């Protein structure tokens, strides 16, 4: 059973088609890098998967459980959403402690207090911020906040992790820290990861496979090495070589 399959998915705004994916599937334990020019629909894609955006048509199958576009909303999709976790490009910190920020999702899921404490400490340890548990989350630096956002996602032990530009706006040291965390958790857990990134070298370093999203369509998908070394589509060749692609 695949963690995620997509069938005839379209997202539109008025007459404009923002995303059109006839078919795609994602395997267990594989990390996918999603790249493409600005406005290609990368964030829209992750937002649909995370039930934040309703598609016009199509369906998703998550571990074989098929959900049609009409059902892809928060109220009907909660059981699906609980299998995944999403880290936004600019994660918002709630005005409480770091500990409570990480614990929040567990509280919603009804995890008992003592178990919550155990899981939160483990997640904070994973991102190297156990000492920050009592700090106000809004006082964190950008890099620390991004690590806490990762901890907040990982504490839920998702089967599917969706990352939307997890290191944008971070300095190289923090980029390296986040990348190390992602690499480490992938060794420890059989999680499927979909990561949107603007950094081609980051996609190359971290991903097993890469997808090129262009004008709302996946026009190329391949093993990472082949994706970069022998791109088939001309737009991807241009994109990789740094030419402007619209
Ligand atoms: N809710 C919306 N209503 C109308 N248009 C939208 C909406 N959300 C996104 N768009 C448009 O859809 C297109 C895809 O946007 P999206 O943010 O998914 O692109 P992206 O590939 O993530 O871009 P970037 O790399 O710049 O973040 C853009 O042209 C954007 O303006």
From TrEMBL:
User: What start and end residues bound the annotated signal peptide?
Assistant: none
- Protein name, per record: ATP-binding cassette domain-containing protein
User: Could you tell me which PANTHER family the record lists for this protein?
Assistant: ABC TRANSPORTER I FAMILY MEMBER 17
Q: Where is the ABC transporter domain?
A: 4-240
UniProt xrefs under InterPro entries: AAA+_ATPase, ABC_transporter-like_ATP-bd, ABC_transporter-like_CS, P-loop_NTPase
Kindly indicate whether the keyword Protein biosynthesis belongs to this entry. Answer: no
* Recorded GO MF terms: ATP binding; ATP hydrolysis activity
**Alphabetical keyword list:** ATP-binding, Nucleotide-binding, Transport
Q: Which PROSITE patterns match?
A: ABC_TRANSPORTER_1 (PS00211), ABC_TRANSPORTER_2 (PS50893)
